[in-house]
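Design review, sub-item: ligand-bound model
Attendees: FS, YL, KQ
YL presented the inputs for the nicotinamide-adenine-dinucleotide complex:
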Amino acid sequence: MGLLDGRRGLIFGIANERSIAWHIARGAAEQGAACAFAHLPGEKMERRVRKALEDGGFSDPWMRSCDLASDEDLDRLFDAAAADFEAIDFVVHSVAYADREYLRPGAFVDTPRGVFAQALDISSYSLVAVAMRARHLMRNGGSILALSYYGAEKAMPGYNVMGVAKSALESCVRYLALDLGPARIRVNALSAGPCRTLSAMAVGGFERILALMEETAPLRRNIETNEVGKSAVYLLSDLSSGVTGETHHVDAGYHSIAS
Ligand code: NAD
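KQ shared the predicted structure:
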């Protein structure tokens, strides 16, 4: 028997088979969940995501495009989900974006207004935009999960405006948890250690961050992306039925030490 038998989830953020969202989808499906997917628009992206899903064992997946910066796209996506599904039980928000030109050590002070606003819109506000629509489909309660990083808590060279966006995201998690708790919808974040994904490669000094983790984290290693998938299953399932408004670290303990 799986921990997510009979549950349906909507997953945002698969770009390829390295994506954290791909590992979460695999973890959820292994526990019996039915997964639907939303990806960034574009033919090339659609082909890439379809291939990654097929390689992950998802044959003929429910997939729709959705730019999280667009309310029209979001409305269209949730209308399609409402037409096809009676209810959804969980949502995974595994999406972030900031102009990589400003993700270099020393470049935060030069962040222009537009770059700041776009990073916060796509990486933080979009969780609110998703939750306000998803709640109407979460008829039996449910779980919403976002992905964060330690750069939300401490200034890390190169993470810059994305760190500010992750701080806002973690705060959004707490406020959404407060508003949606009466509807039995839990909202949490996983703060993952560095994983080699497309987005991570945009962060200047990423290799240094990986090396530092391995040297200093209590477990003396980096995490495997599938470890984020396993912890996600806990937060998406009834195993965490009493947990909401939480940011849970999956980072080999790095956040707990002074370095
Ligand atoms: P990824 O590049 O595989 O995934 C990021 C996803 O965001 C992609 O699928 C991309 O298409 C999507 N996206 C970007 N802009 C979008 C938009 N406007 N609308 C819809 N989708 C959009 O990288 P990832 O590392 O798997 O990132 C997933 C999440 O995990 C992000 O929130 C990231 O900040 C977070 N995270 C990553 C790491 C890491 O080291 N990789 C660590 C902690 C947290």
